[in-house]
Amino acid sequence: MMRQTLRALCAASLALAPLALGAAPAHAQTSCTVNGVPVTGPNVNGTPGSDIIVCSLVESGESVNGGAGSDYITLTGPVNGLVYGGPGRDSITAQSAATVNGFIVGAEDSDLIRVAGTVTNLVAGGSGNDYIQVATNEGVVTGDSGLDVCRIGTGNPAFDCEV
Question: Which structural domain range is residue 91 located in?
Fold first, then answer.
């Protein structure tokens, strides 16, 4: 009797194993709102005009592109992919919970970039006269071309900043 019960349990576990093992783990996607409309990754794009983009996550290998216009991009969670302001006078703010393991690039024109958390990879102003403020820099912060102002709280100094 015990042997039959054991066999039945083994047979049941072998029958269910492919179902349990075949399930792929959930992959988080970039999650944002663009002008109040929810948008998920892998590529989140703004409109040709000015946008308000708020992202709780930018996943590795994925991107957020403000596009043309003066965009306001707010990052409330981890930045593991690319955030690109695009042409226009953009404001990109990474709040304290947003560790920048990926890239933030202001691109053309004069941009304002603020990171209240930690940069472990790259923040770049791009062309134009940029203002960059980073609380903790464990990566690379560069103003690139133009007359740039960079303020680093602690960590590595910034490059290509005139002030």
Answer: 28-155
